[in-house]
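Need a sequence for this fold. Nothing fancy.
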């Protein structure tokens, strides 16, 4: 018992005086801002990533994600406060290790936890008494205790005594300038009370509010619920948008007016489909696990189905808009504004723009795109280069299609100079130029 308390106390002390070394596995949208936040708080940090190009870029102080300025990264790297490496053995020097690797879907939309398993094995290989390990990747309830714990326990170490293990979901919203890492409360579920206590202490160094829950499975479920809540509500407003168009109503006006109700309504907005690494993926993590427990979920699967129909619905809208002006989709010159899955970021993973562009090209349209955050887009094995501002040539386009409402776009100009606009984000909603030629979702 004395040994256990001593182990926890020693780590606690190092966290408090910020001499504890942090290890972060996976330096992407989640891991890099976290590594930088701990580095800025005074902790020495070792960041590990398997992608050699990413490691090289980070070592050169170049940030690939919007939420981290290259300057602050370069300063930390130059001062040896953040060491970036491919070598996971270097984690042996760390006191606390946070795992932030991707959790994609497999071929049959089943959870693909190979990255978590690889990270867990890398940690197991260097695990020693006193280590605190936290999983942050979004995953199904049970992963921490069913996938990580047995691998660590096989080293002959006891959880909560020799080492400490927790799950704490990441909730950052890349590109969101209103809520930074510090302001977003962090949910923590430890395998044992000691695990939870140490993990809460660690995060409280960089985050204002830490929310304890009874264990990792709850914390894992919390994250899935948050994203499924979004998926379901987005599906609801997407369907509302389809109905409003049929009824000749503006769904945007309806939602904004409804949102004035001071209680009981949270506004969500329709769009061309769901994208990114979370909303399209996470419901499958839960439905897979629920199925194993003998329950076939329906509601969230249905929501996902509606959301996935949106790209095709947008293609239909484009075809109809052209037809009404006596033009055909085949051969039409279409400029797409924005291909990232949401405003302010350059992330095109699962972006509905990919599917929409593919369909438009398949149907014979001449498609160009502009996105200030995405210089080149890989589409069907080909590279499409973003047109430059001066080559926008709005008046000569048959149709301008707004898919991402990046703040950098000049929507007044888009409405003023374009002959026909399909706006899937209501980005032109506030322009002063009359908009009879703008069709909104
Ligand atoms: N992007 C978001 O907005 C967001 C928000 C909250 C939670 N999440 C979750 O966080 C997790 C990470 O997402 P992300 O967006 O940061 O992914 P990402 O792809 O941006 O970054 C993951 C990084 O991990 C690296 N990696 C993969 N396997 C590795 C391994 N075995 N060892 C070391 N490095 C490895 C990859 O090379 C990549 O650089 C996912 O589970 C995701 O669902 C993402």
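Here you go.
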């Amino acid at each position: 018992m004395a040994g256990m308390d001593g182990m926890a106390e020693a780590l606690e002390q190092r966290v408090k005086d910020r001499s504890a070394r942090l290890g972060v596995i996976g330096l992407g949208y989640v891991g890099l801002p976290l590594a930088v936040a701990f580095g800025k708080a005074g902790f020495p940090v070792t960041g590990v990533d398997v992608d050699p190009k990413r490691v090289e870029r980070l070592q050169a102080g170049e940030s690939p994600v919007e939420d981290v300025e290259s300057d602050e990264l370069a300063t930390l790297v130059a001062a040896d406060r953040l060491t970036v490496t491919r070598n996971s053995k270097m984690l042996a020097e760390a006191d606390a290790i946070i795992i932030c690797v991707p959790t994609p879907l497999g071929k049959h939309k089943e959870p693909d936890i190979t990255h978590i398993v690889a990270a867990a094995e890398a940690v197991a290989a260097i695990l020693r008494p006193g280590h605190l390990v936290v999983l942050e990747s979004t995953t199904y309830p049970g992963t921490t205790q069913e996938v990580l714990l047995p691998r660590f326990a096989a080293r002959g170490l006891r959880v909560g005594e020799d080492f400490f293990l927790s799950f704490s979901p990441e909730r950052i919203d890349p590109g969101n300038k209103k809520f930074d890492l510090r302001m977003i409360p962090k949910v923590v579920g430890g395998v044992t009370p000691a695990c939870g206590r140490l993990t809460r202490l660690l995060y409280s160094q960089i985050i204002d509010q830490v929310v304890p829950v009874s264990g990792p499975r709850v914390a894992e479920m919390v994250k899935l619920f948050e994203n499924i809540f979004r998926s379901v509500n987005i599906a609801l407003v997407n369907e509302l948008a389809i109905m409003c168009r049929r009824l000749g109503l503006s769904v945007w006006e309806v939602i904004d007016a409804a949102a004035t109700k001071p209680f009981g309504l949270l506004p969500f907005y329709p769009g061309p489909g769901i994208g990114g690494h979370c909303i399209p993926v996470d419901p499958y993590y839960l439905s897979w696990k629920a199925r194993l427990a003998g329950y076939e979920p329906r509601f969230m699967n249905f929501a996902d189905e509606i959301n996935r129909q949106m790209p095709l619905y947008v293609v239909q809208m484009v075809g109809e808009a052209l037809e009404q002006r006596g033009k055909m989709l085949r051969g039409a010159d279409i400029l797409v504004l924005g291909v990232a899955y949401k405003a302010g970021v350059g992330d095109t993973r699962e972006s509905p723009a990919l599917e929409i562009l593919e369909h438009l090209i398949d149907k014979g349209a001449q498609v160009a795109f502009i996105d200030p955050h995405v210089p080149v887009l890989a589409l069907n094995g080909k590279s499409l280069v973003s047109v430059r501002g001066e080559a926008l040539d709005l008046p000569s386009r048959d149709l301008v299609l707004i898919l991402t409402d990046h703040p950098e776009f000049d929507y007044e100009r888009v409405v003023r100079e374009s002959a026909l606009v399909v706006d899937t984000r209501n980005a032109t909603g506030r322009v002063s130029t009359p908009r009879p030629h703008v069709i909104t979702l």
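For context: The chain has 13 helices and 15 strands.
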